[in-house]
Structures are given as structure tokens and as C-alpha cells.
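Troubleshooting entry. The earlier prediction with DGJ gave an output that would not parse, so I re-checked the input for stray whitespace and re-submitted. Clean input:
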Amino acid sequence: MPITLDKKNLRFTLKTDNTMYVMEMLYGKFPVHLYYGKKTIKKDFPNSNAGVAFQAYYEEHGEEFYPDSRTMEYPFYGSGDFRAAALKLRNGNTGGDTTLFTYKKARKLKGRVDIPGVPCADADENTETLELTLVDEFTKCELRLYYTVFPESDVISRYFVLENKGKTELSIEKCMSLCLDIQRSGFDVISFYGSHCHERKYQRTPTAHGLQSIYSRRGASSHQLNPFMMLVDSKATEEKGEAYGFNFCHSGNFLNEVEVSAYALKERTRVLVGLGQECFKWLLKPGEKFESPEAIVSYSDKGIGQVSRNMHKFIRNHIVPKEPYANRPVVLNSWEAFYFDIDAKLMVDFAKEAAKYNMDMLVMDDGWFGARVNDRAGLGDWFENKDRFPEGLKPFAEEVKAQGVKFGIWIEPEMVNPDSDLFRAHPEWIQKTPGYDPLLWRTQYVLDMANPEVVQYLKDSFSKTFKDVPIDYFKWDMNRHLTTVYSNALPPERQGEASYRHMLGVYELFRWLRELYPNAMIENCSGGGGRYDLGMMKYSTQIWTSDRTDPKWRTIIQHGSTFGYPTSTMSCHVAHVQDCRNPRFLDYRFRVAMNGPIGYELNVLDLEDSIKQTMKKQVGEYRQYEDLILRGDFYRLLNPVTDDMRYAYYFVNDDNSQILMTYLQNEGDPKQEKYKLKVSRADRNATYVDKINGGTYTGAELRAGIIVESDTEQQYSKMFWFCKE
Ligand code: DGJ
């Protein structure tokens, strides 16, 4: 039973397989947070004031309750808690922004409450939800807080519905889905920063007194800072110590805040995750309700790696689409092979090659539609380029499939080039604030997806062009961020909603495409991995990790991506034709790619036969390990950011009978440093045979560590496949 409601004492407890979360309605009114940590039989969770004086208090409760110095469930602005608020509302009549939401009732529900139009986690038979209803008596606004418990992955999600049941117009000025107050400090924040071609670089910084924030104001979750973040004990390691992971099921702007407050008696740490305040405002008229996106948290006392594995399990079980591709296609993609220079004949020849090497799919990337022969024209004109595809898309796709491979196609629905029929017909459909020129980026503008007419246009043009075309896979790209954000479909007083409503329009189109092509898989992409987030994963089985395919930087990007996301979502390609001519480099690129579902992105037509044969062998080898890579538990061993650019990890299956361990080293090392790689999941008394290098080990030996010596030559890798005898 994940949720217990002790209605007498107004104490509510949520349990996952390994964790427990406890809250209490203090004085029957104030939801205070008592405990979040490993499961315990303890019943006493002290939560006294952390400060002694110079604090605000309610006269009726005296100085026993200082809102600012307690751990709170959901802090609002203006009523004595001076830390960052989760919710700030402005009253349209008075102009005031104080609210006081107090407890009214609680109930538990089987499963979850869906958030219409918003991607959220799927419930299963073990999922339960606590609904906590609070009311602000002055405005009669009702706040329903939801806590959904996913026991097997040790994840709790948070979202809310705010319903204006009064007569006053309200405006949401700050909107956070999740708050977690912790009764101590002494944490580090692990976050993932970067830029185009350098996504999700690991960084670990000590928290400091005051506020630290991780955010995007770009209208996309972004390459710059990923919404996944960890708060870990300052001594925590991959295998030991307390760690929390946070994420947000949304692909647009977000704000994560970490605030450390000092009081006379105790320190406190507050974490908030949500839409924030700078790029989001929402008008809530009487009778209207607002449903927030979902945020998640997971805790473990068994180190950083365990929180990652909780996230992996949660995403695989509750976020990514299950079907149609449990196993992923090995794709041959045209982008790094030909860029925009493609046509029907070339693509059919390319497909023939893909089939020869047992690859599963040809993906025709950018360049097939409108006047799109470079990045300066055609976006928005979703009909095939007749010069390049004279017979039309349908016979072309059928010919590709006749070669024995599936067919995938690239689209970038949210964008338009100024040089396009669409823009010429509808210049008012782009994001442009009146009085200001729109900014270009890769010669393109962003369509106003908050406008239902725009979404409808896209649906109509894709349905027409793709009618009866046998498409198995879409690569959905998005190659710029949002500027001069504005929607012509909204009145001036609702313009603060434009970028959030834009995302809702994008999600609407995703859902429509999935319904139109229920058997096709979507691979998400945004100039590489610029929308590597839970919102996109809800509709996309995998995400193109980065436009950086050079293995040196790629290992850093892949390593960072594994903290919050399963390797099964991390699309990895072997690319760059020149380097692949060198067998050593081709082999290294393949080993680097085998951190996730693999593909190839190079002009195979131009390669010598021996290289082609090697690629065919590689595809076979990947198939051998695929189950571990897509479904195994993942353990990081060496961190390329802190371990001198060495990356090592292993996958292990449920019963520990198969372990696939990889060591990667991009630069040559004259010192031939030695690394001890410990396989903590090996069964101590079992015997394992290494099916790649030979050799037999006891589980105890694997747990104690295998020594790997770095190589003097660059681009060196070593793999081990330990199988129980
Ligand atoms: C950016 C993507 O990341 C690339 O893989 C490729 O699809 C190009 N866009 C096409 O324009």
C-alpha cells in the first residue's frame, strides 16, 4: 500500500519500494514536510522551528510555528515564508500577491490523475496518488496538490490543479510543480550544462547559502542546462551516500531552484522544480483551472548511481512509448553522408547498402521537400521536391522498402524559412512581438504553435504529403530557440502564456502524428540533443544525443546523459567517413556508440569492401549485446570529466548472469595508467567467463576489481563480457 492516510492525526505517508515520504497538516491547516528518505519504522519525525527569533508568526499559533523556518510541502508567496515560493498569485481586484492556502481535505486514488494536453507518466497497477486539497479563503481559489507514487522505481511525482472558484480574476506569477524541503544542508548540486555539440556535461558544485538556479528561457529545455538535476550529500559517490534526482516532464522553459538557508539552530535546503516566473504568467479567470506539468523526485541512500538507475527504470516503465520498437532499428542516416544533396536514386542505392550490412532502416534526413536544397529555403513547405523525387514519395518509399529495410524520414514541423511558400502566405504565423523585428537563426523563424490554425495547417499538409507513404520512423528536429515570443492567437493580457501554450501546440502535433502512424517510431532531435527531456521522451522512443559525433567529446556527452536518462533513449551513431577508413578508428567509434542504440551516418557507398564487412560484423555484435544495452542496469565506473577523459561503465542483467563492461580512452597515454574497475553487481560466489578476452573469474574477483591499463595509442577501447557459467 504505497499511500496511508492517518486522518486522525492528519499525517500522510507515501511509500515506494525503498523510500518513504511523510507530511503532516500542522494545526489541521499547514502542510508541513516531515521526512523523505529510506524506508523506516520510525514514527517520530521532529520538525521544530529552525530559527529562534526575528520571524513572522500567526498570532493564534504563537511563536511555536514560524513558517520561514519549517520544512513546508508547498510554499506560497507573502505569508511568512521568505524562501523561494512555489506559487505566487496576483489578485486582479486588489493587486495584492499574498495568499494563504490551508488544508481542506485529502484522499487517495488508484492510478493517477491525467493532465490534459500535457505529457505525463503512465500509471500501472501499483501506482497510487494522494490528492491534497487546499483553499485560499479570501479568493476562494482551490489548489489540489497531487503526489503520484511509482513504487518500483522509487519515484514520486508532483503536479497540481489550481481552480479559481471565486469571483476575482487571478494571475499566476510563479508556478513550480515540486517543492522538497530538507532539514539540513551540506549538499552538492550535480547538473548538466553545455552548448550545441557539447550537451549535458557533468558538473558538481557545492551548494552555498542563497539561491542557485538551473533554467531555460529559450522555449526549449535546451543544450545549455538540462532539467535533470541531482542534489547529493557532499561525500556521496556513485555507490554510497544520500542522493536525490529531480526532473520535469516538459520540453520548454523551466526553472530548478536550490536554496540553502541558515538559521540559528539548523540549516535547511529547499528544491523547487517548475515553469518558474520569468517566462510564464497565466491568467486564471473565475471558473477556470490551470493544470501544471509534472515534476519528479527520487531518493536513494545508496549513492548517485542508484538514483540514475531509478530514473532509468521510471523512464523505461512510465515515460517512453512501449511500442512499436522494443528493440531499436540500426539505422543508416543520410545527413553526415550527403547533407542536403539527396534524391530518390541516391537514397535507394543507400538503402541497398544498408540492407547488405543487416542494418534495419534507411533514414532520409533533411533535403527532401519544397525548395530545401540548403538551409536557406523550404522549411514549412511539406511536399516532396519534384526534381528530386519525380515519382512522388509513395513509390519512392516503397522502393526503399523493397530493398529489405524500413523507411524513416526527417521533419522539422515547428519552423519556417522566410523563403518559403508558407511564410509568404502567412507571415503572421511566426513568433513576433508587435513593434520588433523577428530574429533569424539558421535562416529560420519559429512558428506560433500556440495558434491552433498553425497546428491545423501542419496536420493538413503532413496528412496530404504522407498519405499512404509507408513510414516507419520520423526524425523530428527543432533547430532554433524562441525569440520575440508572441502569439497572434492570444489577447494582450494572455501573452505571458504564449511560450507555454506554444509547447502545448507542439505536444498536440506529436500526439496527432503518433495516432496517424501508430506503428512508427519517433526519434527526437533538436540540433542534436537540445530537447533531451522527459516531455520529448513521452512521444519519442529515442533522442539524437548530439550533433557531435567525434568520439572524444561524444563520451563526455554520453556519460552526462546517463545520469538522468536510460541508455535506451540515447541514439548513438558511427560517423565521419574519413576516420572510419582507419580500422582502429572505426572500431573505436563503434565501441563508443555501443553505449546506446546504434546507427551509422556516413557515405557507405564510398567505402572499401573490407570496411563494409567490418560494419556488417559490428551490427551483428551489437545485436548480441542489445538486450543488455537497452534493458540492463547501468553502472558508471570512470567519469571522463574527472578521470582524465577516461570513460568506463558496465551493463548487467536482472539476475547478474551477464555483464558487459567497456573502457574507453580517446588520447594515448605514455604513462600507461592503471584503473581498477569494480563490478559490484557480480554474484560473489559465481564463476564468470569473459567471452571476449577469455579468462575465468569468481564474482568476488570481479567485485574486487579488474585492472585495465591505458594504452599508449589514441582511441583505445577494451570490452569485457562476463557470463555466469
Ligand atoms: C540538425 C540535426 O541535429 C542533424 O542531425 C540533421 O538532422 C540536421 N539538423 C538537418 O538539418
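This one parsed fine. The first strand starts at residue 3 and ends at 6.
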